[in-house]
Amino acid sequence: MSAAVLSKSKINLYLKVLKRRPDRYHELETLFLPLDTPADRVEIDFEGVPGIRVSSTIPGLPENLENLAGRAALAYSDMAKIPAHWTIRIEKEIPVAAGMGGGSSNAAAVLRLLNDQYGALPESALAELALTLGADVPFFLHGRPAVATGVGEVFRYLDGTLFAPPLLVANPHFPVSAKWAYTHLAPEHIGSDCTGRLEKLIDALRRNDPAGVAANLHNDLAFALYEKFPLLAILRDFLRENGALNAEITGSGPSIFAVCATVEERDELALALSGAFRSITVFTN
Ligand code: ATP
Q: Residue 253: CB within 6 Å of ligand 1?
């Protein structure tokens, strides 16, 4: 008996670091937009050999309990007191360590699949468990557009009609760890935002106004990334000069997304980008 789900990726249209806590967690205010492209596929065989096995289509990606999906399965088994005999396979499409939440999404997919199968935990316990695995994991349990606060565990879901603008996401093939990005966050970028940008961004998403979305993008983690990796500033400028209304890094990078006015302009930009930078993978929504 097995089951599978699509494990979505995300971008952060807005990411403000409000506070660095003594426990080294960060309090954030961030707008998560889930994406169906790229997405992984996570499958669990519930009647495998005793224990937890995790493999993926990416050679060198941590396996078994070193994979975040394996850690999620172990945490579920412990909390729900269900002996594990689970074989997990992950078909990866989401670039790794790219700021697109791949590992967190896979972990949430495992929690969801296991709880659909066994129904052993209430939603509140599942959410608690998710947060122990990583700050982005609770978001992926539902995978709906949301503003997250706290360390990523308090949600305001942006339900009702929301219009994602035409987007492309460009992934340069080098990894950046979230730890690096947070360690290099300069103190002057930490604090609350008095500009009202986040609410303007949400309004623009509700009004189907790509220009309004583009004008209000923000990412506190981006400053250090542009400085350390000049290619990212080159990419951002290329996107802005070739038809994007705006472009910004998602999460802890290095993937960078562009907001366009129309699907046609977005598709033209995707072509231009692929032509100019052969080693960049481009995704569109
Ligand atoms: P984060 O902000 O958590 O770093 P990210 O989207 O930038 O998220 P991920 O793709 O989740 O990065 O990878 C982060 C690290 O987690 C990588 O070093 C990778 O080896 C490890 N990892 C463990 N399990 C997975 C998984 N299932 N998918 C992707 N990466 C995983």
A: no
- CA 247, 38, 54 angle in degrees (round to 5)? 130
What domains appear along the chain, each with residue ranges and CATH number?
A: 2-157 (3.30.230.10), 167-284 (3.30.70.890)
Q: 10-residue block means of pLDDT along the chain (285 residues)?
A: 97 96 90 98 96 97 98 98 98 97 98 98 97 95 96 90 96 93 91 93 98 98 96 97 98 97 98 95 96
Instruction: Please provide the DSSP assignment of 72-94 as one string.
Output: HHHHHHHHHT---EEEEEEE--S
Separation of alpha carbons 228 and 97, rounded Å: 16
Distance 105 CA to ligand 1 centre (A): 9
Confirm whether 237 is a catalytic residue.
Answer: no
Give the model's pLDDT for residue 159.
82
Angle subtended by helix axes 102-118 and 123-133, to nearest 10: 150
Q: Is 136 a catalytic residue?
A: yes
| Whole-number pLDDT of residue 118 | 98
Residue 33 identity? L
Per-residue pLDDT at 24: 77
Q: Which of 10, 16, 40, 92 is catalytic?
A: 10
Q: Which of 40, 92, 136, 220 is catalytic?
A: 136
Which residue minimizes the CA distance to atom 18 of ligand 1? 97
